[in-house]
Design goal:
Blueprint (H helix, E strand, L loop, with lengths): L1 E9 L3 E3 L6 H4 L9 H5 L4 E5 H8 L12 E5 L10 E4 L3 H6 L6 E4 L3 H9 L5 E7 L7 E2 L10 E9 L2 E8 L2
Parallel strand pairs: 1-6, 1-7, 3-4, 3-6, 4-5
Antiparallel strand pairs: 2-8, 7-10, 9-10
């Protein structure tokens, strides 16, 4: 099993604006400007929190966002989710431990899901795109509560206005 974080932040390290919005990202470029399709084709499972899912749910057809993966939303809400998304109300580390070992897992969205996996030394790759935007405030990707972790720089790429850094976990 390999666990990936793949996402985009602003130059000042924010994943979303103060209201968890992504208009800054949509106004900067499109998915076609990145290596997203190649990345997604390698994934089997997505994990996301409820706030990330709300952003996806605001689209016309949420199921079309991740049509070929099993998609899990970590939430305490009992509200039903649309087809293609399965609610999970348990610890993310425990949940991941019971997933099949041959699967590639993508952590979509923010630190609520990512931090416990980092703390458990379970994140194998971080693919981080940097957008040429300064928000000044917002939702940071890392909360600085994670313990010291080191990663090895594997690749640097440019996609249109985005710089992409790919890191692998160091043993």
């Amino acid at each position: 099993m390999s666990i990936y974080f793949y996402g985009c932040v602003t130059l000042d390290g924010y994943l979303a604006d103060r209201n968890h919005g992504l208009s800054w990202l949509h106004d900067t470029g499109s998915v076609e400007d990145t290596g997203y399709d190649r990345f997604y084709s390698q994934m089997d499972i997505t994990l996301m929190g409820r706030r990330t899912f709300r952003e996806i749910q605001s689209l016309k057809d949420p199921a079309s966002c991740y049509p070929t993966t099993q998609n899990y939303v970590f939430t305490h809400s009992k509200a039903p989710l649309p087809q293609g998304f399965v609610p999970v109300d348990r610890d993310v580390v425990e949940f991941v431990a019971q997933l099949p070992p041959e699967k590639n897992i993508w952590v979509v969205g923010g630190n609520t899901i990512l931090a416990p996996l980092l703390d458990g030394d379970l994140v194998d790759r971080i693919i981080l795109q940097i957008a040429p935007v300064l928000l000044g405030a917002g939702i940071p990707l890392f909360t600085q509560q994670e313990a010291l972790k080191r990663f090895h720089l594997k690749a640097v790429r440019q996609y249109g206005p985005f710089a992409e850094l790919e890191y692998t976990r160091t043993p």
